[in-house]
Design a protein that fits this description.
With 94 residues, the protein is mostly helical. Helices cover 46% and strands 0% of the residues. It has a domain at 3-59: Orthogonal Bundle (Arc Repressor Mutant, subunit A). GO terms for molecular function: protein kinase activator activity; ribonucleoprotein complex binding; structural constituent of ribosome.
């Protein structure tokens, strides 16, 4: 993540935390006040994201990315485990 992205992320979170509407101008103002130089498109990208998605929901769902992997079956030591069974030894009676 670049410094520009981090600065805009923090600015967006500050605006959200203070219940201030999130606009590209306000993000740019906060970033400038922090003495960080960002490309001009970053504040507008973050403002558009805040328009389409609820920032509070994004915060609460961070790290909730889907279910875990399916459990792996434990292999048994019997012949069904993929290994061949040892051949039976026949005893000959004389």
């Amino acid at each position: 993540m670049s410094l520009s992205e981090i600065a805009c992320t923090y600015a967006t979170l500050i605006l959200h935390d203070e219940d201030i509407s999130i606009t590209s101008d306000k993000i740019a103002t906060l970033v400038k006040a922090a003495n960080v130089t960002v490309e001009s498109y970053w504040p507008s990208l973050f403002a558009k994201l805040a328009e389409k998605r609820n920032v509070g929901d994004l915060i609460m769902n961070i790290g909730g990315g889907g279910g875990g992997a399916a459990p792996v079956a434990v292999a048994s030591s019997g012949p069904a485990a993929g290994g061949a069974a040892a051949p039976a030894v026949e005893e000959k009676k004389v």
